[in-house]
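Escalation from tier 1.

The customer reports that the assembly of two entities below gives different structure tokens on two consecutive runs. Tier 1 could not reproduce it. I'm attaching the input and our single run for tier 2 to review.
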Amino acid sequence: MPAARNLVAVEPATRPEMHQAIARAVEEAGGTVVPIDEASCLMFADPMAADAFPELIAQATNVEWVQLPYAGVETFLRHLDPAYTWTCGKGVYAPPVAEWIMTALLTAFRDIPTFARANRWPVQTGRNLLGSRLAILGGGGITEAFLPLIEPWGCDVTVVRRQATALPGATRTVTTDELDVVLAEVDAVIIALALTPETIGIIDADRLGSMRNDAWLLNVGRGGHVVTDDLVAALRNNEIAGAVLDVTDPEPLPDGHPLWGLDNCLITPHVGNTPAMGLPLIVDRIRENVARWIAGEPLIGPVDVELGY
Amino acid sequence: MPAARNLVAVEPATRPEMHQAIARAVEEAGGTVVPIDEASCLMFADPMAADAFPELIAQATNVEWVQLPYAGVETFLRHLDPAYTWTCGKGVYAPPVAEWIMTALLTAFRDIPTFARANRWPVQTGRNLLGSRLAILGGGGITEAFLPLIEPWGCDVTVVRRQATALPGATRTVTTDELDVVLAEVDAVIIALALTPETIGIIDADRLGSMRNDAWLLNVGRGGHVVTDDLVAALRNNEIAGAVLDVTDPEPLPDGHPLWGLDNCLITPHVGNTPAMGLPLIVDRIRENVARWIAGEPLIGPVDVELGY
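Tier 1 run:
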């Protein structure tokens, strides 16, 4: 006999704050938190504990659906089993990352690092983001969350992606073939790509050389999108205005790395989305999905087990 | 005989870059730049040279209209003569200042000063501006320019002003009577007031004490709105999360001032709107007004000589 749909397991309990927040959301959605052997579904409650999954699911007798806490399921791929319905946190973490992009653009254009490092009244500098020209590499969830934020700024925004499918809020969308042309025109280049064999090292010495020398490079994708040594050289030679990096290669950036010593480089420690920012967002998604599960409605964020995302 | 309306003086010529940009705008609007004794109107072209005005206007024979480069005409008050029609740059400089507010909010919430000062991989910190509660003191042009920028962030925005006239984009508008209640509720307090006898020292030890200890104070009004010694004490005792100040009292902040040494204080050197940011904005206004003058249409930004603004 299948378990009643309102019976929900929240496991493992290795992250007390996350466990408690998810359990509360389950109850707010009309569910009851029960041990896994009584549950109809499992809210997987520790993103760092993928390896605990096999032992956990072995105790389940009636679980039909598993909700994962990840945006991307790379670290969980080996456990995906088509016997279950899978959902993940697809899209929920994009708004804080889009916020990071706005932060980095404004920080760069308005010279905040210079002011933050000053211990006496500095020279008046800075330029406006308002009305500037931007290129964003990648047309995924982060870009979709960023475009509404930049909309009131009157910027000219070019999205560079594999297919030139238009995105609402972008001035234009072009394919990667046109990357070099776009790089030469814009005031800032924002990397918001997934790391794939095609995108590793996409910003190298040649691409940095294509950029204007008053243009900023922002990376909120993965460190591997930028050839670090080429970036160090470009920053040292003022070939670009500067870089704001939330991801680095290597990461964390080791003590004494040349990027630490450059005035025109700002490193943020992979905080596009932090666990503290992400928890309320995944909790909201879980609350919504548990309500849908109990009502027999379609779930948000389905994972295609065959495709692996 | 009055001069033809397309004959425009651009004086003084003491700021070559500004003079040239305004002269170009006059021509783009269909005007011809002529000496002041031939002109129907004067574009006053050096904000630092108010004292040059009497000698200049003494040479005019047919000038009917004077366009000033200022947003507020305090420094020009003694020269205002009701014999002329006066316009100023009212409102044109608000967008860069609104941009500064967004910069300061994001810089504060996302811990950019900490990251900018680091020379090794820092701890992951920061919180989201998205969905936060903000109070903005003042309902003038800066607030009007700020509200559209914050609109996509899903914030709860309370405008505190003399009259509770609603502003589009604000969640609510309240009067100054309710200031203490509002201060206790919000994640950030933004000062965007004019300095008047009622607003001098509006943020003092009591008001800082009313704020949450995780709330930020931003000042883009005037240094005199905040009692500096009270702010130093509040920052030292972590009574508030921190402060971002574009204006200080005294200003410029002298070397060795205690605010320079506080990790939870960021000073920007009165760059809400810099001359470099403002020039294209006033030039746009002048182009528009010269076109209107030639066409005999109403001018934008009239100054009421009796009221002095």
